[in-house]
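User: Fold this one for me? It's Lactate racemase.
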Amino acid sequence: MPGIAGEKTILGNHGAKMIAHPKATWGVTVSNPIWEEAKEVAERAGGDFLLNVSVNKRGEITGVFAGDLGQAHARGTAFVKASAMVPVAHPFDIVITTNSGYPLDLNLYQTVKGMSAAAQVVKPGGTIIVAAECRDGIPDHGRYKELLDMARSPQKLLEIINTPGFSMQDQWEAQIQALIQLKADVYLKTSYLSDEEIRQALLLPCHSIEEEVERLLKRYGPQASICVLPEGPQTIPYLEAARPLS
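Assistant: Here's what I get for Lactate racemase.
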């Protein structure tokens, strides 16, 4: 999708039906309607040259992929799959994640990415604990906070977003958050949001990850499985049965 695409085009590409598609997820290109549409738009625009880079957690460039749009992108995704995606054999009862620290965990809006990475490998009915600073709050700018304030449950939020004709900036992030919460409980450990603000954002406050894990082990049992994603969405876990970057 060109960086100068119109607002209507972007809202359509990130619309409720597109986000809800089962293939619209991490590590999937072919059959992912969001990627397929972006690819079609780029091809129609007549792009002659692609330049993409991959980076590590220190922001260092680990690969440069340039040339033909399709070929260069395919090489880049293959490299990223090998270097930044990790297969796991089974889903977990508890997944502890981050949003990879500053500046990526600047606010709650961005932190949904860390939740989404964890959601790839959490069991239905499981729990996600995400640690993020959120120095910028929810934030107050954009319309994500406004969307969260419209509903008192993830289910209601999805009903609003899926209303025919509904379209609002940032609805995609609110929708992804709500879909995650239908699958698992989500606790937020942060230094810059009050318990009330966290609950207003439809999440559960966490004051101590250690204490929360101890409590959850009583709920799930001593044999509960735990996954830790210290780099959050910088490393993408996926179930071995899934086929990423297909």
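One thing worth pointing out: DSSP finds ten helices and nine strands in the chain.
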